[in-house]
Design brief:
two-stranded antiparallel ribbon; 8 strands; 35% helix; elongated
């Protein structure tokens, strides 16, 4: 009986070693990083996209064994949209610039991501966006740090900084190979004390110039040349420091990027 009991209660260490590698030979497994990439990729496929990238980054932190090959199999190639609103709010709130930077590097964001939404990433300064420098494909960057249809007010105020973010945005809108950027949304904290002397205001003017350089763009409904209207509505992004539209982009739909004049947009 004693011998039978000992057999039944074999050490866990022996049990976890009985995993066959791809070739059929036994493979010792003591932690997640010892598992074949295919198993890890299958498990990660059930995660939201940002969590999948964070999973790959965490595994690479704990192992030096073929991290690029393993990360590639886990994260895959489809990264048109990276929306941190797809993960738990508490997790996004705890991410720092190093986390964001490693995720962007892991998925090769500069060559793959077209839409970036940093919902709930209130713990970042923006330095972690460095891997996006010079992107020729990114179309939308939402820096509001809140989800769609949520109040833009964040308490305490986030520490996201123009000093970190604007130089990166400048490399995107000034790309010699052509800029794909179509929509920007900024954190409320940047809009609250507008000044024509600020670096942010100067960037808004450069962004408007980028749109002007693209030539004539017409409203999809009435065919009027955009931008049109009075005050800030006559700009692609508002620069009137005394108006409520300061730093807000008009004439371009947040969701589909189609172009509408203010009147037609209100009637859709």
């Amino acid at each position: 009986n004693k011998q039978a009991t000992m057999t039944e209660e074999a050490p866990i260490d022996n049990k976890i070693r009985r995993i066959a590698a791809a070739g059929g030979s036994p493979q010792e497994v003591r932690c997640l990083t010892d598992l074949p990439s295919g198993i890890l990729a299958h498990a990660a496929s059930f995660l939201a996209a940002p969590s999948r990238a964070l999973f790959a980054v965490a595994l690479d932190e704990n192992s030096a064994v073929s991290p690029n090959e393993r990360s590639s199999s886990i994260v895959g190639n489809q990264w048109d949209i990276l929306d941190f609103g797809d993960i738990e709010k508490k997790l996004a709130e705890n991410l720092n610039d190093e986390d964001i930077e490693r995720v962007l590097q892991c998925i090769d964001a500069v060559n793959k991501v077209k839409r970036l939404k940093l919902a709930n990433c209130v713990n970042i300064t923006g330095a972690g966006l460095e891997p996006l420098r010079g992107s020729l494909i990114i179309e939308q960057i939402d820096l509001s740090l809140v989800g769609e249809h949520q109040s833009p007010k964040i308490y305490p105020e986030p520490s996201i900084s123009c000093n970190h973010v604007l130089p990166i945005l400048d490399t995107i809108i000034a790309s010699e190979g052509g800029c794909a950027l179509r929509h920007l949304q900024f954190p409320l904290v940047w809009l609250q004390e507008p000044s024509t002397d600020s670096e942010f205001h100067q960037f808004l003017q450069r962004y408007n110039q980028m749109w002007e350089n693209r030539g004539a763009i017409s409203c999809l409904e009435c065919n009027e040349v955009l931008p049109c209207g009075s005050g800030s509505r006559n700009e692609w992004i508002g620069t009137d420091t005394h108006g409520p539209e300061y730093g807000q982009q008009y004439s371009t739909c947040y969701g589909c990027f189609k172009h509408y004049c203010y009147d037609c947009k209100m009637n859709i």
